[in-house]
Amino acid sequence: SQKIEQNSEALNIQEGKTATLTCNYTNYSPAYLQWYRQDPGRGPVFLLLIRENEKEKRKERLKVTFDTTLKQSLFHITASQPADSATYLCALPLTGGGNKLTFGTGTQLKVEL
Amino acid sequence: DTAVSQTPKYLVTQMGNDKSIKCEQNLGHDTMYWYKQDSKKFLKIMFSYNNKELIINETVPNRFSPKSPDKAHLNLHINSLELGDSAVYFCASRFRGLDEQFFGPGTRLTVL
Q1: Are B104 and A97 in contact (CB < 8 Å)?
Q2: Which stretches of chain A drop beneath a pLDDT of 70?
Q3: Could you tell me the residue ranges of all domains in chain B?
Q4: Which residue of B has its CA nearest to A6?
Q5: What is the pLDDT of residues B27-79, one digit of tens each?
Q6: d(C-alpha A93, C-alpha A3), whole Å
Q7: How many CB pairs under 8 A join A and B?
Q8: Does A101 touch chain B (CB under 8 A)?
Q9: All structural domains of chain A
Q10: Burial state string for B52-72 with b = 16 or more CB within 10 A and e = fewer than 16
Q11: Where does B4-111 sit in CATH, by number?
Q12: Which of these, A73, A35, A42, lies nearest to B88 by C-alpha position?
């Protein structure tokens, strides 16, 4: 069955450094992959989408890579700030249509001063 | 001017009761979803609803039933609530042709 894995341990980094989060998947060849941010007590917020024919995508301080051979996506936040502290979820579309998403369990990022 | 709204934000009820959660989106989207986020923060799709076509995740008990009075609303009705139904329920919507989903603020359901 389709499986998504994100590092369940929290990631603590210093302000100004680059945070790198990993999303691995198995038994799956998704057409795209999405990254969302979730703050405590709130719903996920869409950040970036990368398609299977794209190697890399950028948006301001965010960068996503997609390696369909390794079945892995990396999510980078450069020049991190305390305001970037949140849980980051990767999501892939389930087979069967309807754009239903299956989510990883998320990685909690904490950016310290 | 909230894009996707849910009511109530918190819902505390006894086992065996029937309850509903309401969702409204003012984005003009034509597809809506319900997700369940359990205590381990795992977010799982329950239903998707598009132009009156309902696609149900087969793991959802039939005690859960979505109801859509119009394209802007997708309510979730739950019968005979059980302890294991305690979770945060998120509504989401999407515009056909785009893949990003917009989530509501969530409803925290606690079954005692």
Answers
A1: no
A2: 96-98
A3: 4-111
A4: B42
A5: 999 899 999 999 888 899 998 888 778 877 778 999 999 999 888 999 999 99
A6: 12
A7: 54
A8: yes
A9: 3-86+96-112 (2.60.40.10)
A10: eeebebeebeeebbbebeebb
A11: 2.60.40.10
A12: A42
